[in-house]
Amino acid sequence: HDQIREGRLSGERNDQIAGYLSSMDADRKIAHADLLVDMAHLAMLVRQNLIGEEQAGMIARSLLKMKRNGIPQEAFDERFEDIHAGIEGELIAEAGIEAGGRLHMARSRNDEVATCLRVRSRQDLLKILDSLSMLRKVLITIAEEHTRTVMPGFTHLQHAQPTTLAHHLLAYEEAFSRDAERLSDAYRRVNRSPLGSAAFASTGFPIDRYMTADLLGFDDILGNSMDAVSARDFALEILAALTVMMTNVSRFCEELILWSSAFVRFVELDDTYCSTSSIMPQKKNPDCAEIMRGHAGSVAGAFQAVVVSVKGLPMSYNRDLQTLTPHLWRGIDDAAVSIDLLAGMIETAAFNTERMREESDRGFSTATELADTLVRDFGLPFRTAHNIVGRAVRSGEITLATLEEAGREMGGISLIERGLSGERISQALDPDMVVAAKEIPGGPAPGVIKEAILRRREALIES
Ligand code: ARG
């Protein structure tokens, strides 16, 4: 049972109130972290001569037993306000009050939970960073095979200019690399220890905060004990970075969903990532991509929930802080599984390069290059060339005749007199030529993309 209440308060709490107050559900994610925090705190108490060796030994044995065999179910009972109380209860039951009752000296659940949240978030962040690297590797590897796979590029979802599949995939890779930067940056601030701040005012016992920080793998301690127990900006930073990351995941999924449609057929996702219909036997639906797109919403919602939870809280610890923890876990878990599955979904996808080529010059999408050719080789101002080609398109086809006609309308310009030929036109309108012309850094020309791939591989290794 919960011994914390016994001194000050009277009366058994009914299950409804106990369940209402308990954070046990969300605390499952920090149960293991709590054991680690207990061990670090215990080791520090021993070294500072704040606890006898024999009693410390008894506590250590119980903690190790829980670490080895798992924390017993009783410790997760909702009659405990949280896992910290649950594990202390278990400790006292195992090691007796003389030993087990000593572990909580010089600390509070306030610094304990803040430390556990950081230990666990840190672990989850590393996993997400790992998945991001995996995803980027997959994108770069597929891009490598498709430096000459011509496809249409879109603006306003209208065929705009041809590009390549490599160019398209590397666009996402670069976005995901910034997501990794943001998460790594957040990690640096997550990785500071609140432990030893106790309730908020620190403690009169001569503890060593640097020792526990070190044992738990933190880079540093949080300087101010009041800030340390009450700060949740680390959670905001994580969720903000994940929200941004999930917008990139969601955009990618949106395209994969669109590309899977029979209208487009640029990709076929592997069956394992798809579902079928309970009524329409022919259906193959891109459900994983849709769930990921949906999770982008729930992660953004989690971020929003934490913002609203903390914005009005006075110093220092307030119990409201407990209510934001489930949002943190929800955001992290949804983002983590999404980013993990996305790599596999891309890796196993079959890209339909024929369909891409077929669409690459649809909707006069090579017209820009023709206008550029009129500027480059025939001396026209760009606006004039833009107008001439636009008029030809409006007539329904781009031919020597329609261009000549458009030129005449534009103040008597004869393109034929300037040397334009049908052959020169079809050259300019050829998607491969259009792509090959884009040799500027960041562009899709195969040579440029191959260099970009080398640089992206280096960036990935360095990250
Ligand atoms: N379970 C709480 C949390 O998640 C920590 C307990 C602090 N309780 C308290 N009454 N000060 O924030």
TrEMBL record:
This is Argininosuccinate lyase. It comes from Methanocalculus chunghsingensis. Belongs to the lyase 1 family. Argininosuccinate lyase subfamily. It catalyses: 2-(N(omega)-L-arginino)succinate = fumarate + L-arginine. Residues 80-301 form the Fumarate lyase N-terminal domain. Transmembrane segments: none annotated. Its EC number is 4.3.2.1. GO terms for molecular function: argininosuccinate lyase activity. HAMAP family: Arg_succ_lyase. Pathway: Amino-acid biosynthesis; L-arginine biosynthesis; L-arginine from L-ornithine and carbamoyl phosphate: step 3/3.
